[in-house]
Description:
By secondary structure, the protein is an alpha/beta fold. The chain has 15 helices and eleven strands. α10 (222-230) packs across α15 (374-393).
Amino acid sequence: MDPLSVLRDFATRGDLASVVQVGDEFRFGADYSFPCSAGTAYRSKLGGHYSLETLVFFLLHHHLKHTDYLQATRLRRIPTVTLPDRKPLLDYLLGRTSSADAIDLLPPPPPPPPSDEYVPGEPAGDEAAAGATVPAAVDYVAMIRALERPLKDRESLLESRNRDFHAVLIASTKREEERQRIESQQRKDGLVAKTRLIGSDDHHRGGGGGGGGIDDASDLAPKTKMLRKIGEGVPIILVPSASQTLITIYNVKEFLEDGVFVPTDVKMKAMRGVRPECVTVQKKLSRDRAVAAYEVRDKPSTLKADDWDRVVAVFVLGKEWQFKEWPFKDHVEIFNKIIGFFMRFEDDSVESAKIVKQWNVKIISISKNKRHQDRAAALEVWDRLEEFMRSRSH
């Protein structure tokens, strides 16, 4: 047997006490003896094979910390077992694993030189040479690999059989719904507070003519005066109700508030098809402390006459029927009073914007895949919208 197999056999039986060094060789009881410097079949990850002396010393001192083990090997001037090899080597020698990738089958020792001494019953001389057959080389590694059977592969691990992640999906969905509910309530509270603030300013300014009132230029913030010029209440942004357009009632909030475009079908699945009647968005993509709130709707037929005074922007679909029930006579009047935006993918054909180019509409292009560019497109919408509202407030 080879030294590694004999050492493993004694180690698994807990019979290392029978391994005794006598001179320059190790004796395994009365059965085997090998030179201390004999090479073993275990290959180091750094290259080369460990000697029998190295493995015996490691087995007797594996309980030491690696630093203490290194110090002990220096004192005895014995080659060390590297840290990456410690665990797999120990598991193999103690029988915890049946095989190891680092084991190379050593070639059998060379046969002893032929003797000229005559042995009765054996052919001698040329007769032996003529009748002897040389055994063919055996590839033991190929034999072992032929018997291997993989238990799992990458695909079977990814399938995660007998595991159910439905509870994780339900929990994450509930957290998202709770977050949206809290944000919706906070927006409502902010709108109520803003309305009361405007009403309070009207009350203090109503009866005063000259010195009794507060100066109009210093009292109202520029954005508040902008709202007063356009119409009482929160400004309205209209989006198409058709799902084939890029910006809808489902994804307008993520686009305008966070600067991220989420496809409508993805948002519809996340919201389970529940269509919101009205969505409130705020401009969060600037360092301006004044936060402007806007209502987003997709049903112009539900607007009252006073509501149309608050409409400041519209995302157009590029179809004439979108403006069928609007209280304006033509496109010129619409886009003089309301700023229009047309969202398109940058690689769409020119024909998709052929009709829109005839209108006074701002064309905003986004990428189909580069989501980091969405923020620039959202900022362009906000900049053009605020510029338009400033022009209407004068």
